[in-house]
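REQUEST FORM: STRUCTURE PREDICTION
Request ID: SP-0412
Submitted by: Lab K.M.
Chain count: 1
Length (residues): 172
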Amino acid sequence: MNMPTLPGVAPAPKRRPGRPKGSGNKRSGDLQRYVEAQFAGMTPGQQSAQIGLVTAKELRDAKGDLLLAMAAKARALAGLLGCEAKEAWLLMQRERADLLPYVHQKRAPKAEETDKERPSLTFVAIPVEGVTAAGDGATAGEWDTPPDLLENQGLGVIEGEQVTQPKSHDDT
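STATUS: Completed
RESULT:
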């Protein structure tokens, strides 16, 4: 059914079935409020942080030495749990590792360089007393490998032909 529109007034958006985009899930919100109410007003993330991380007071008590504060917390936790300090330390480490993605997000992988981003290389032959680094320029092969580098370098031969000759897939 077509509704007449008034000048200067936008038509109302169509209602679609279901929850509008961006609105929260009611069940998740209910569960979150229940967990916070039942467990001292702290979320599981906050409780993990309380186990695994050192507070400012604990750091002050250790005179600013973070490792010493962590070791003291592990010993205290071990006493409460009735386990060894090493096991308490590993529990603290696991809690910190679980919290890490929420505090330090992963960085996007580095994109590989494209040909446009890759710097181009330019070689310049500088004349030195009439001779370039490649030779004296008198012969057409001035950029060939100098003879002293070819000593003890035998020619590669494949089926009786030199390696330097182009091969084609059509050759049999």
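NOTES: The chain has a mean pLDDT of 75.
Reviewed by: T.R.
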